[in-house]
């Protein structure tokens, strides 16, 4: 691992999160969504990204956080995955930051629950902690119970 | 299509494929030499040579085959590890590669194998194969020789001079002189010099030039290029985008008076349409491309089965998308093989049945309603639904009861049931079945449907309907729950719209299942809002239903029609199908998504998945499928043939025709008595008579004592039982929805047939009771034993 890694950061509820900057295709304001009936709750819908159909996943729902206030306009972080592009719907976009790898630590064992698997680790920044998302796992939510 | 045309095409394809294989082989051999053997690489090399050998044998190129065969022998030893990879080995193989290539070039140019002497190559290969030790000794010498050979290029397009000499117009000396002059002066062409020198005529040169041109065009790899379908897909997508952008611009300019902008937009419009058509065309191929292989298949199989079969093709020029052509190739071959193997009888049997000894197989393809229809018809013995039912029970695909309830049409569809695919015994009995489930699955995978009709003794027709292309399909756009959805037109039968007042009475309930009488048949209804969990919209006849019109989209899947109730029917449109992400793959109700003219995404419904979800179809597609289908009879079923009869005045009853052996009339004087049963002597048996009045409550007989007795003869365990009824009313083909279940046993339930309430009898139960009782009191054991 290099000494420093660049992350695209964003806020979801109170969490400060980051994903590898190389996996981010683009960041966009809210796009028109087509909801998908029967899909998993964290799938917000489908968006038309210049002719490409992209599934949007609400990170609040995906991470088990309270729903976003109605007056808050979400942002889309479009991420490249092996299975095509996926959009992560977040509250607010942060900077692209470079962090030193010696501030990295694994998630402490005291954090439990199903969302633990989505967090690869934590960077101890001066003011706060930066949680690193596992992009591939986040992009693939559990299939809906409603689906057959 | 002529015979030579067909075989030329096969040879051409063989050449293109072989050249490709050889190019790869070159690369692989070099890699093999550089980094030694790995199993995957050696496997690939082996397969390439093996394929060429196999195809040569098939096409009758014996010389090429024998060379490739020696190479294959050697490679098989390399593959199993008994011979190691050495430079010696790879150079011998490269030499083999070049030898094959030069032979292929000759075949390409002359249409037949040339005289090649590959004795020393063969010897070298054999030596390598046989003597591992010898290989070390002769190492260096052979390698050099082989490398030199390997550098020799195969003859390409003949020179003009050569052609002229060959055609006898000029002598070699004339050519030499002309070439010399050309080299000196540099300017005119050889042909012109020859004419100027008076060595030959203008016409002869022209002829020679044409020959040369032909040779050039005949060079398969020059005449066409192979393009990755993925690239075409990408182009197709881009064109789709362009169409959307065009639509948006058209909308904008419609309100704009600027004439320059308007005319530019019109041009953009035209160019886009033309481009779209062009890109579509690059992917289209005539179905004849895959049909052309069938005559050979038919011929070979007919010889193997000692049958005489002619194949006829209509509509070979019908075009289909490349990916679809690929996808139906195997199913089609399979169906054709089945038709010959099981459908068409031996010449002797055919003559005995007053048919010509030569069986006829007809392939038809035609466009209809934005789809391609392919029909495969044989004039063979047909499929007997009765035997199919028996075979299904035998094989454990269905219970006897479920099998008996199937209509003939449903029974025919048993050939597509998975359980039918393996047992040869069943195949022999049923006439069809090996892998037909796979055929069906493959066709459904590309959005197609397959249907079978058959008349015993006359023949069988399989009808395949497939979309023209996978990328752009015609779809019906509907709105439900404030969202738009697209329904592939393939599954669409018709549209029904009713005002609220009408809908309140026309939509009826069977318990909580709504149905609509569509031309006298019960059509089960499914509400899209409810099925997708969008909203719990009440049915029009339920309290709290909004006063709006009801729109029913009548769809069909697996031969089962059902009505999909939607909020609003919008329009039909050509839609560009795009796949859904992995997150949504598990939802079988959607086939994909598309982008609408306003740029928003709309989901494409998967009619089959939706029907399954709504319980219209049996959800389980395995061997229980058909049983479940009969249980879900209330949800609507395809046609059944019923015998309707009456007893006691107006009391109408019905039996599936398939249950009935014969209809007979007896003089009342023939009736004798044994135990508590009336019996008649019938076909060397004592047949008990069942008066329905005795076994069914509330059924009496109005028949006078001396009238002829109307008897429905059914057979149970080879024992005949006669049902005495008053009157045979009719034979009807209808959908049956059992609406009301009565006491178990004798009556399955009631249904509306020809607008009258009719009891459907459970004949098995009825007869079984009688039969057991009758056998118990029978004076002798002379009846057939119970199974």
UniProtKB/TrEMBL annotation, chain A:
CheW-like domain residues: 4-144
Superkingdom of origin organism: Bacteria
Biological processes per GO annotation: chemotaxis; signal transduction
A Pfam family reported for this protein in Swiss-Prot or TrEMBL: CheW
SMART domains: CheW
InterPro entries: CheW, CheW-like_dom_sf, CheW-lke_dom
GO cellular component terms attached to this protein's record: cytosol
PANTHER family assigned: CHEMOTAXIS PROTEIN CHEW (PTHR22617:SF23), CHEMOTAXIS SENSOR HISTIDINE KINASE-RELATED (PTHR22617)
Protein's name according to its UniProt entry: Chemotaxis protein CheW
Upper lineage: Bacteria, Pseudomonadati, Gemmatimonadota, Gemmatimonadia, Gemmatimonadales
From TrEMBL, chain B:
Record's keyword annotation contains Transferase: yes
GO BP, one annotated term: chemotaxis
Keyword presence, Kinase: yes
GO molecular function: phosphorelay sensor kinase activity
Ranges where the Histidine kinase domain occurs: 259-470
Family matches, as PROSITE patterns: CHEW, HIS_KIN, HPT
Pfam family, one: H-kinase_dim
UniProt modified residues of type Phosphohistidine: 50
Superkingdom of source: Bacteria
E.C. numbers: 2.7.13.3
Catalytic activity annotation: ATP + protein L-histidine = ADP + protein N-phospho-L-histidine
Domain HPt per the UniProt entry, residue ranges: 3-107
Domain spans labelled CheW-like: 472-616, 639-772
Name the UniProt record assigns to this protein: histidine kinase
GO cellular component, one term: cytoplasm
Record key words, sorted: Kinase, Phosphoprotein, Transferase
Gene3D superfamilies from the UniProt entry: CheA-289, Domain 4, Histidine kinase CheA-like, homodimeric domain, Histidine kinase-like ATPase, C-terminal domain, HPT domain, SH3 Domains
Enzyme class: transferase
């Amino acid at each position: 691992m290099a000494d420093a890694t660049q992350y695209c950061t964003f806020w979801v509820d109170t969490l400060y999160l980051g994903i590898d900057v190389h996996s981010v295709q683009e960041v966009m304001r809210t796009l028109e969504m087509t909801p998908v009936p029967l899909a998993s709750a964290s799938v917000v819908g489908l968006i038309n990204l210049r002719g490409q159909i992209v599934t949007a996943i609400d990170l609040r729902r995906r991470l088990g956080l309270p729903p976003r206030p109605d007056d808050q306009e979400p942002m889309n972080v479009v991420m490249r995955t092996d299975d095509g592009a996926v959009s992560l719907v977040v509250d607010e976009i942060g900077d692209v930051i470079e962090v030193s790898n010696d501030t990295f630590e694994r998630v402490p064992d005291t954090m439990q629950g199903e969302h633990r698997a989505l967090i690869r680790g934590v960077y101890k920044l001066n003011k706060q902690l930066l949680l690193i998302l596992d992009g591939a796992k986040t992009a693939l939510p559990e299939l809906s119970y409603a689906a057959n | 299509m002529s015979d030579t045309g067909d075989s030329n095409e096969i040879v051409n394809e063989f050449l293109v494929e072989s050249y490709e294989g050889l190019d790869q082989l070159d690369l692989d051999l070099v890699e093999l030499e550089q980094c030694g053997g790995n199993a995957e690489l050696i496997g690939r090399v082996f397969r390439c040579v093996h394929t060429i050998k196999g195809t040569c044998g098939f096409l009758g190129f014996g010389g090429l085959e024998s060379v490739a065969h020696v190479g294959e022998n050697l490679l098989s030893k390399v593959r199993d590890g008994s011979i190691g990879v050495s430079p010696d080995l790879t150079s011998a193989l490269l030499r083999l590669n070049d030898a094959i290539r030069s032979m292929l070039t000759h075949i390409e140019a002359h249409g037949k194998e040339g005289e090649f002497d590959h004795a020393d190559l063969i010897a070298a290969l054999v030596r390598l194969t046989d003597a591992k030790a010898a290989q070390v000794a002769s190492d260096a010498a052979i390698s050099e020789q082989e490398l030199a050979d390997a550098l020799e290029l195969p003859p390409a397009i003949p020179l003009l001079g050569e052609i002229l000499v060959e055609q006898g117009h000029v002598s070699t000396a004339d050519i030499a002189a002309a070439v010399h002059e050309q080299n000196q002066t540099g300017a005119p062409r050889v042909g012109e010099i020859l004419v100027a020198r008076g060595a030959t005529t203008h016409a002869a040169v022209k002829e020679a030039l044409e020959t040369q041109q032909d040779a050039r065009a005949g060079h398969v790899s020059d005449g066409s290029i192979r393009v990755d379908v993925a690239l075409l897909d990408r182009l197709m997508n881009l064109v789709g985008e362009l169409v959307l952008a065009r639509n948006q611009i058209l909308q904008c300019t419609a309100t704009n008076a600027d004439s320059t902008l308007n005319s530019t937009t019109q041009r953009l419009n035209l160019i886009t349409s033309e481009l779209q058509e062009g890109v579509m065309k690059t992917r289209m191929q005539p179905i004849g491309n895959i049909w052309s292989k069938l005559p050979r298949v038919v011929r070979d199989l007919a010889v193997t089965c000692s049958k005489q079969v002619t194949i006829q093709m209509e509509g070979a020029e019908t075009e289909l998308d490349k990916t679809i052509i690929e996808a139906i190739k195997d199913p089609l071959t399979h169906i054709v093989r089945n038709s010959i193997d099981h459908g068409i009888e031996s010449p002797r049997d055919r003559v005995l049945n007053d048919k010509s000894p030569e069986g006829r197989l007809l392939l038809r393809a035609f466009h209809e309603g934005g789809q391609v229809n392919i029909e495969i018809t044989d004039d063979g013995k047909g499929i007997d639904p009765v035997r199919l039912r028996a075979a299904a029970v035998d094989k454990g695909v269905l219970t006897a009861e479920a099998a008996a309830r199937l209509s003939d049409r449903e029974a025919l569809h048993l050939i597509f049931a998975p359980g039918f695919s393996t047992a040869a015994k069943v195949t022999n009995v049923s006439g069809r079945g090996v892998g037909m489930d796979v055929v069906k699955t493959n066709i459904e995978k590309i959005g197609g449907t397959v249907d079978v009709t058959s008349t015993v003794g006359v023949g069988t027709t399989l009808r395949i309907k497939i979309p023209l292309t996978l990328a752009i399909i015609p779809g019906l756009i509907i709105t439900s729950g404030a969202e738009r959805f697209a329904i592939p037109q393939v599954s669409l039968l018709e549209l029904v719209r009713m005002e609220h007042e009408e809908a309140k009475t026309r939509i009826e309930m069977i318990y909580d299942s709504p149905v609509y009488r569509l031309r006298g048949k019960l059509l089960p209804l499914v509400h899209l809002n409810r099925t997708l969990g969008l909203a719990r919209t009440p049915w029009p006849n339920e309290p709290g239903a909004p006063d709006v019109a009801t729109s029913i989209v009548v769809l069909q899947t697996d031969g089962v029609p059902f009505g999909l109730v939607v909020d609003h029917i919008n329009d039909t449109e050509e839609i560009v199908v795009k796949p859904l992400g992995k997150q949504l793959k598990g939802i079988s109700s959607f086939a994909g998504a598309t982008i609408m003219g306003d740029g928003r995404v709309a989901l494409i419904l998967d009619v089959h998945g939706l029907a399954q979800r709504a319980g219209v179809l049996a959800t389980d597609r395995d061997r229980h499928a058909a049983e479940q289908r009969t249980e879900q009879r209330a949800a609507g079923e395809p046609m059944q043939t019923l015998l309707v009869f009456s007893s006691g005045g107006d009391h109408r009853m019905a039996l599936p025709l398939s249950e009935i052996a014969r209809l007979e009339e007896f003089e009342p004087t023939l009736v004798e008595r044994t135990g508590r049963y009336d019996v008649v002597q019938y076909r060397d048996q004592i047949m008990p008579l069942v008066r329905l009045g005795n076994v069914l409550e509330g059924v009496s007989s109005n028949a006078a004592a001396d009238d002829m007795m109307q008897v429905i003869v059914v057979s149970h365990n080879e024992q005949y039982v006669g049902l005495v009824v008053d009157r045979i009313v009719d034979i009807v083909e209808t959908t049956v929805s059992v609406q009301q279940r009565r006491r178990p046993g004798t009556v399955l339930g009631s249904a509306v047939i020809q607008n009258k309430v009719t009891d459907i009898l459970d004949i098995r139960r009825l007869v079984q009771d009688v039969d057991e009782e009758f056998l118990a009191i029978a004076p002798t054991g002379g009846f057939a034993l119970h199974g």
